[in-house]
Specification:
This protein has about 600 residues and is α/β, with parallel strands linked by helices. About 55% of the residues lie in helices and about 10% in strands. The protein folds into four domains: about 140 residues, Alpha Horseshoe (Serine Threonine Protein Phosphatase 5, Tetratricopeptide repeat); about 70 residues, no CATH class; about 170 residues, Rossmann fold; about 160 residues, Response regulator (Rossmann fold). The strands form three sheets. The protein has a seven-stranded mixed β-sheet with strand order 7-6-8-9-10-14-15, sandwiched between helices. A five-stranded parallel β-sheet has the order 2-1-3-4-5, sandwiched between helices. The chain has a three-stranded antiparallel β-sheet with strand order 11-12-13. Helix 4 runs parallel beside helix 6, helix 6 packs parallel to helix 8 and helix 18 runs parallel beside helix 19. It is globular and about 75 Å long. It starts with a helix and ends with a strand.
């Protein structure tokens, strides 16, 4: 009975992950604690079964540190075979949660290649293939992932499991670049893999032409009449038909007078640059409103609608966006793409209210994911002592904690602060030197010993200006932290190569917009023009303006397919469940003072 309960709950948690979050964190903790309490009053091996069940609940609900503690304390060699298998499965799933896909694969193959292999039940085999599929997705090995997904199809007839597997498969292939899809289809693939890859090519090729897309999918259906993807196509096509309605007038709400006019002008220039290069037959009328002359954004929204807008972009400032975010669903008769975030949480917002921001929170989360991927769990964070820095620090710590990392310390800097003294203090170099001086005085002799920095950290994350970042790296070398890997936000890069100044940043990895790292590889090289002569902040806003224009035509497509994305100047753009545009940035490393793109697994 208990074994069936473990298997059943485990499969529910793995296959329907959204179910885990339908209850509160407190309820998750209480459920796990209940199993732990039952383990105290049970005999071996039932007590171990309860502890594994508690670990399973912890893993699926995000409490990975607690799960790890339970799994590490398990007397593995004394467990019966079925529990040893479950123990390894949980270690694999914990590795997936911690973004360690290779470790997850190792655990599954240890089961298969050991004496335990013969004891693996069908339910556990299904679970193994689910883990491997996720791991191969994380390692960017789509063909291996497809093989695992195909095996899942053969191991169950549970409709919920199959639907989730097909949705995840679609997400995997849809995110592959077109050139990679074409290369993969040339190989001798199974009909299962070929069907998915061909469908992704069709979708990417005709995503901007709904009529052609529907026609091409009809042809695909005849070529692959029994393919599992049929199960997800009907809903997708229903949403695709909504893309046919064109946009006749777009209203742009930006500050164009006063001390913030430069920000609005940069976005406006990028927006109009994208408009200039759009297909003349598809270009809408653009009407621009200066928000500096309005106090009430709800009134301005309604004015734009009354004057013919069927899509509105803006406003720019957080308080203006907050005004609009409090309105009920019925207020928004046409979609609005706000150019900021109303709040710092992913709270529910009106259906036609979208938010697109160069927010510090998104970069902070990417950096937390990056250092965990590099197996660094104990960073020190350096940010400016202002509202932006505090928002960054809060988001970074929250995400890091969720990924089982621990923020050792946060250093808040001032623009003109003496970083040398600050680093010496916070890295405890002063304390180390004072200990040696005290020992020298006590012994009455000179001690020639090199001071040590604090040893409770394994990485440094910086989100400061290029000027401060250039000072910081040499200081770390001076203060005995030359071996400490450094990861940075986009702040540390000025936006244009400057090898003479950035030579001191060699070895530092950072995330940034595609335009600033590989402009020639974006779809917008011909539209970049004047961006090259702009100061960094204005250049970033110009890029945002280009993407804002393109989102007026891409927004419905992105909304229709939750796994689709759009490669923009500011990043790879997609929409989350709360209508927030998320940006996936690219990674670069300073080499000889110049940023060079690196792969995410480097």
């Amino acid at each position: 009975m208990l074994k069936r309960l473990i298997t059943g709950l485990s499969l529910i948690f793995i296959l329907l992950p959204t179910l885990c979050f339908a209850v509160s964190s407190n309820e998750d903790r209480q459920a796990a604690q209940s199993y732990l309490e039952q383990s105290k009053t049970s005999e071996f091996p039932q007590n171990m079964e309860f502890r594994l069940l508690a670990a399973d609940v912890y893993i699926q609900s995000g409490f990975t540190a607690q799960a790890n503690e339970i799994l590490e304390a398990m007397p593995v060699n004394t467990l019966p075979d079925n529990l040893r298998i479950l123990h390894r499965l949980l270690l694999a799933e914990l590795a997936i949660k911690n973004q360690q896909p290779t470790k997850a694969l190792d655990q599954t193959y240890l089961i298969q290649n050991s004496e335990l292999g013969a004891s693996v039940s069908s339910a556990y085999r299904l679970r193994i293939h689910l883990i491997r599929a996720k791991a191969y997705d994380a390692l960017s090995q789509p063909l291996d992932s497809l093989k695992e997904r195909q095996l899942i199809e053969s191991l169950t007839d549970n409709l919920n499991i199959l639907l989730k597997n097909r949705q995840d498969t679609w997400k995997t292939v849809l995110q592959l670049p077109m050139e990679q899809l074409k290369r993969l289809t040339v190989r001798d693939q199974s009909p299962y893999a070929s069907g998915w890859l061909t469908l992704a090519i069709i979708y990417q090729q005709y995503q901007a032409s709904p009529d052609k897309l529907i026609q091409a999918i009809d042809g695909w259906k005849h070529e692959f009449p029994q393919h599992p993807a049929h199960a997800i196509l009907s809903n997708h096509l229903n949403k695709t038909t909504q893309l046919k309605s064109g946009i006749r007038q777009v209203s742009l709400l930006l500050p164009l007078e006063g001390n913030k006019a430069g920000l609005g002008q940069a976005i406006k220039d990028g927006f109009l640059s994208a408009y200039k290069y759009a297909d003349p037959k598809l270009r809408p009328e653009i009407k621009i409103y200066d928000t500096s002359t309005y106090q009430d954004m709800t009134a301005l929204y309604q004015k734009a609608v009354d004057e013919g807008a069927d899509f509105i972009v803006g406003p720019l400032f957080k308080e203006e966006v907050r005004q609009l975010s409090t309105q009920p669903d019925g207020f928004f008769s046409v979609p609005l793409l706000a150019l900021n975030q109303a709040n710092d949480t992913n709270s529910s917002l009106p259906n036609r209210f979208f938010q697109f921001a160069l927010a510090p929170e998104q970069e902070a989360e990417l950096l937390a994911e990056r250092i965990i991927q590099k197996n660094k769990h104990y960073p020190i964070l350096v940010v400016p002592n202002n509202d932006w820095g505090k928002r960054f620090a809060s988001a970074f710590e929250t995400k890091l904690s969720h990924l089982t990392g621990v923020l050792v310390d946060t250093i808040y800097t001032q623009p003109q602060q003496n970083l040398g003294k600050l680093i010496s203090q916070r890295f405890e170099i002063d304390s180390s030197q004072e200990r040696f001086r005290s020992l020298s005085r006590m012994l009455g002799m000179k001690i020639d010993v090199q001071p040590r920095r604090r040893q409770d950290l394994d990485s440094l994350v910086i989100a400061i200006s290029p000027q401060q970042a250039r000072q910081l790296k040499p200081l770390l070398d001076f203060y005995y932290a030359h071996d400490l890997p450094i990861y940075g936000s986009s702040n540390i890069y000025s936006g244009s190569p400057n090898p003479n100044k950035d030579i001191d940043l060699n070895g530092v990895q950072f995330c940034d917009m595609p335009w600033f790292i590989v402009p020639s590889q974006t779809d917008y090289a011909q539209r970049g023009g004047q961006i090259l002569s702009l100061p960094e902040q204005q250049a970033r806003l110009f890029a945002m303006g280009v993407d804002a224009y393109d989102l007026t035509t891409q927004l419905k497509r992105l909304s229709a397919s939750p796994h689709s994305s759009y490669s923009g100047m500011t990043g790879k753009l997609s929409i989350n469940e709360n209508n927030i545009i998320t940006r996936q940035l690219i990674w670069a490393e300073f080499k000889n003072g110049v940023p060079v793109r690196v792969k995410t697994n480097n």
